[in-house]
Design a protein that fits this description.
It contains 21 helices and 11 strands. The protein is mainly alpha-helical and 493 residues long. The structure holds one RNA strand of 77 nucleotides.
RNA sequence: GCCCCCAUCGUCUAGAGGCCUAGGACGCCACCCUUUCAAGGUGGAGAUCAGGGGUUCGAAUCCCCUUGGGGGCACCA
């Protein structure tokens, strides 16, 4: 990394368990992971669960599971099973660090860098409305900042509870963002923001600073939506007497309309992609290239290869649209690159139990080149496990007919096939033999092979599109082929 | 409204002053292969580098302005 820091590289991901693992969080985590692996640094996982109202343990589990699934392993973080934390800077769950936050709030209070605010939500709301009416920026006036001792006591005896606000120094803040370059803000434009709520819960901008400092984070790499939080946090670092880390704000992932990627417009849950059968290596590869490129024409990279090439300084400034077509393409590429056993293993969760492991391996060659997502195996191969009646329920006379033909041509093709299948014993019932026989029959009948094949494809699978016919027949077996051809013939009566 | 950020084919991007009459990939369109669908192969359309000013012998690349887009302005993270 060219931005040399005297300290060792320590980066972190800090997801909040208020929802499923988001694609954007996954990509930011990936970038942090890649920086750590590229530099030999340390990757820390910290759970930001201070918002008890929205937080949820199930989400925490889901996020951790999703991160594992993607292969983003961390060096320090909370123990998953609820046991001890891993690493010297724990606990790594903010809900377990409350005493530290309280102590730091006290320090700030004592130093006069923070003060108690007794304003009620109604009062604040009224203040905001007035400001808006005057077309001013909505921000806290700071009136509790200069409360006298008597006024404070009056509020206390009145029974009012207080929040703690940070007295923002009205100065310009300049920092060199690793990705964006020099960025300037004027903190004089900011109101004093709350760092500890009335109910005692500390807030994000405050705890993130304390923890990043306590955990010796050297590079804070996060989403662009945090860019405007940075000057507030820098002011906090300084008031608290901490070293200010380096910041890098990665561009947003966008909906097709170029707004920030959101659930309403794009699927944002990593688990949803997993459920559809996207491979983690494909998703990682795809995400890595959303806002970064190694500058080569090569585009398929494993996590290790990405780690060796990744440079945070080369991450783009502009947002990138999430292009589902490209993800599909990459996924297909990864699926096709898998060996029989590997692909069978990945397919296992998508295929019913009646299809045993050995049968999945036999199925793999039929579907490999046709799968975009693993879940597509159902559409492609369900005829193998569907009862004959279900397949037959899809028959229609027009579907059964060969191109340009009618029921008569369909019946001819079907009955000829029935004869051939019937005279083959189980031992000879292979794709090769079937293909030879069928082609010979087509020649004998004086029809195009395709016209003999199509009615049988529909009869056997209930679909006009299927994996190669003869290999499908082999997997189906002689008896089921006969039964289905008979059903189709009956449909034509 | 205020603050901040951004800007190369529809999309992801290469490009760090001359190698650019802008390269690759996805998607799209043809054709080839082919029992359907895919996969694969070949070819094609597609970006006056948002617009306008500079700087320079020379700008997609540097500077300024405009326009457009986005993000943020919580007792959420």
């Amino acid at each position: 990394m060219t931005t040399t820091s005297p300290k060792a590289v320590r980066v972190r991901m800090a997801p909040s368990p208020t929802g499923p693992l988001h694609i954007g969080t996954a990509r930011t985590s990936l970038y942090n992971f890649l920086v750590a692996r590229h530099t030999g640094g340390t990757f820390v996982l910290r759970i930001e669960d201070t918002d008890v109202a929205r937080g949820n343990e199930a989400y925490e589990r889901e996020i951790i599971e999703g991160l594992h699934w993607l292969g983003l392993s961390w060096d320090e973080g909370p123990q998953v099973a609820g046991g001890d934390d891993i690493g010297p800077f724990g606990p790594y769950r903010q809900s377990q660090r409350m005493d530290r936050y309280a102590a730091e709030a006290e320090r700030l209070l004592a130093a006069g860098s923070a003060y108690r605010c007794y304003c009620t939500p109604d009062e604040l709301e009224a203040e905001r409305r007035e400001q808006q009416a005057r077309r001013e920026a909505p921000r806290y006036s700071g009136r509790c900042r200069k409360l006298s001792e008597e006024e404070r006591e009056a509020f206390e005896t009145e029974g009012r509870t207080s929040a703690i606000r940070f007295a923002v120094p009205p100065e310009k803040v300049v920092f060199d963002d690793i990705i964006r370059g020099r960025v300037e803000f004027d903190n004089a434009l900011l109101g004093d923001f709350v760092i500890v709520r009335t109910d005692g819960m500390p807030l994000y901008n405050f705890v993130a600073v304390i923890d990043d400092a306590a955990m010796a984070i050297s590079h804070v790499l996060r989403g662009e939506e945090h860019l405007s939080n940075t000057p507030k946090q820098i002011a906090l670092y300084e008031a608290l007497g901490y070293d200010v880390p380096l910041f890098g704000h990665v561009p947003l992932i966008l909906n097709p309309d170029r707004s920030k990627m959101s659930k309403r417009k794009t699927q944002t849950a990593v688990s949803a992609y997993r459920g559809l059968g996207y491979l983690p290596e494909a998703l990682v590869n795809f995400l890595a290239f959303l806002g970064w490129s190694p500058g080569t024409e090569e585009e398929i990279f494993s996590l290790d290869e990405l780690a060796s090439r990744f440079e945070i300084e080369k991450v783009h400034k502009a947002g990138a649209v999430f292009d589902a077509d490209r993800l599909d393409y990459l996924n297909g590429t990864y699926v096709r690159s898998l060996g029989d056993e590997q692909l069978a293993l990945r397919l296992r969760p998508f295929v019913p139990a009646v299809i045993d492991d050995a049968a999945i391996i036999r199925l793999v060659p039929l579907v490999r080149e046709r799968l975009v997502r693993l879940a597509d195996v159902v559409e492609l191969a369900s005829f193998l496990w569907e009862p004959d009646a279900v397949v037959a329920s899809r028959y229609e006379a027009e579907l059964l007919a060969p191109k340009g033909g009618g029921p008569a041509e369909a019946a001819l093709a079907l009955s000829r096939a029935r004869e051939m299948v019937a005279e083959l014993d189980a031992a000879d019932f292979s794709a090769d033999v079937l293909e030879d026989r069928f082609r010979a029959a087509a020649a004998e009948l004086g029809i195009k092979p395709a016209d003999l094949f199509k009615p049988n494809r529909v009869a056997l699978t209930g679909r006009t599109v299927s994996p190669p016919l003869f290999a499908s027949m082999e997997l189906l077996g002689r008896d089921r082929c006969l039964a289905r051809i008979d059903e189709a013939l009956a449909k034509l009566q």
